[in-house]
């Protein structure tokens, strides 16, 4: 369900962005604005500006830019709806919906939210008790000191200690029989023998609070002080905690992820805590489960580079293969995924203590890229000296390659797999797609038929011929991975009894302005919005009406519903003030540009728009030089960036 546009405007009108940002960034008055160190990249002199009059923030160093909602999304990692809910709650507003739920559904949703908040309160109270118990236990403190954990790191991660007693929490919560203690995973209720026994889940363990991206305690991990089994124990699945979605240490690592430029994914709580102690505060850990698609998706909301760290033994290789499969759908051309395999006798903590931080940093830099690990996984168990072995390798590579999103990486890997299989890339791709081989150069193509049933050979392709559809009226091509079907299944066949329609003559009219041009490109391929920088988002959303409101609306659609195609966008924007603009821009048939050409066109356009934007900011900085001592420094930074972009354009 969509959040009404009018409510977003009302919420932002009530919001004081200086107050919101100031809770996370130390701000000082500087002229008309407030300045501070940017929370999105490491810097020593403040270049992060918050404007109380314009109600937006902008970093002159990294280009981060937006309103209060975007700040909460970027800084805390939550989605659009969660950011709006959070902001509305701070101002006592209730978020409405254009498509309201029934009264019963609303009541159920409200009850669910209230219960989740109550469970979080219970877990926070238990965490406070565990921290108090740690201070009272010399044995637990000595254990942490023996592992090299300082008091500052223990405080940062909120470490605690669960005593040996079976009912310690009975002294923390007045009603030990409260069902919330069981629902939160703190207490186990046993009906063995019909006596209804209750006891603490965690006993004689170092306690690691697990926090969500908002910093709320949603569960615990406990580690024994000796060699008892199980060594680690996690909270069970609860209404607020799911191991397949959460990562330990992500809340604590948010700033370090931006400063160091990558996330280091490890396998245990102590790895994360020890690495933070040793200078790698960008480490996170899975919670006793294999890396999932949701883990990877969450990480890429904070950084564009992920390094998975595993032991070099067989178990580590199996875990790495799971991580590879989870990461493949997210491995776009602008993201980096690597795999670090340490010697079998080491984990990250012991490796650094034995070899030093520089050696570990070098090992991270030399980690195996996703492309190479994919090829290694495909070759596993294959004898490439024989045709049979190469065929098996190609078969094993197929599902891995098909999981990759379209882009340059996918095409390059196709060429490498084909070379290893002693095939041409086009031939391998046709084989995987179930297509008949292409005719030899110079052979007549107009009446080429598949000998199996006389059907047009293109019936078996993954991409539809121009103007064809899938019988449901959706002419634009949808990749097989996105539509859930397998390749080579005859997806794009002609509707029964219908002739292939001819596309309308002529491409869409040329846009009248750069704003029109950018709007048309985004309407054609909304998914590309996710790959733009924060500065580019702000540039487009800040354009005068109707273009700026159109881009802001498209951004919200993407966060709410994913990358919709034009027919769906057209239906949803009925009645919007920018509807006429969008319909005019999308009139006529689409162009014939390839995806690479489309990307290059968008990049060139945005660079040109950004150059003009930087020129305007330079003028503002010069005008402010008389009253703002930092204005000239901002001008020089803006000038340097603009000249670099212009040099890129000339190149």
UniProtKB/TrEMBL annotation:
Annotated signal sequence is none
Outline the extent of the Toprim domain.
Answer: 261-343
Cofactor annotation remark: Binds 1 zinc ion per monomer.
GO molecular function terms listed in the Swiss-Prot or TrEMBL record: DNA binding; DNA-directed RNA polymerase activity; zinc ion binding
Q: Which Gene Ontology CC terms are recorded? A: cytoplasm; DNA-directed RNA polymerase complex; primosome complex
What SUPFAM superfamilies does the entry give?
DNA primase core (SSF56731), Zinc beta-ribbon (SSF57783)
Q: What Gene Ontology terms for biological process does this UniProt record contain? A: DNA replication, synthesis of primer
- Give the reactions, separated by semicolons, that this protein catalyses: ssDNA + n NTP = ssDNA/pppN(pN)n-1 hybrid + (n-1) diphosphate
Identify the SMART domains for this entry: TOPRIM (SM00493), ZnF_CHCC (SM00400)
Record Pfam families: DnaB_bind, DNAG_N, Toprim_2, Zn_ribbon_DnaG
Which UniProt keywords are given for this protein, alphabetically ordered? DNA replication, DNA-binding, DNA-directed RNA polymerase, Magnesium, Metal-binding, Nucleotidyltransferase, Primosome, Transcription, Transferase, Zinc, Zinc-finger
What is its cofactor?
Zn(2+)
Q: What is its EC number?
A: 2.7.7.101
Span list, region Disordered: 435-515
PROSITE patterns (alphabetical) = TOPRIM
Write out the domain note. Contains an N-terminal zinc-binding domain, a central core domain that contains the primase activity, and a C-terminal DnaB-binding domain.
Task: Tell me the protein family, please.
Answer: Belongs to the DnaG primase family.
What quaternary structure, including any partners, is listed in this protein's UniProt entry? Answer: Monomer. Interacts with DnaB.
* Name assigned to this protein: DNA primase
